[in-house]
Write the structure tokens for this entry.
Amino acid sequence: MSKLRQAQTVSAGTEADPSLKRHAEQCGICRHPQRAQLEQGFLNWVSARDLATEYQVSKSAIYNHAEVTGLLDQRHHNTQSALDRLIERVDDAQVTAGSVISAIRLRLKMEAGRATR
Ligand SMILES: [Zn+2]
């Protein structure tokens, strides 16, 4: 059972990992009435700042919840899959200076995102 599923189980009141249970008891997102929508937005790369505003939670709470429940890893995995599909087609692509610069910027943003977690 994934950590994400375990955290959902905690909110349903059944047994789970004690650290996830403790998290769920203190986390405003685990208890948020629109948790599913917030999590779906996070997985679809809606910015944490926009989610925090829309659901009236803090950005740090979103990242903490995402880290503990495995959403952050799931989101990165989704990105890697999408990028992998693009990379597989690189021989068919026309490489320009702009596309190289865009790739470098994306890579730096991904590394910066990991460093600020
Ligand atoms: Zn939570």
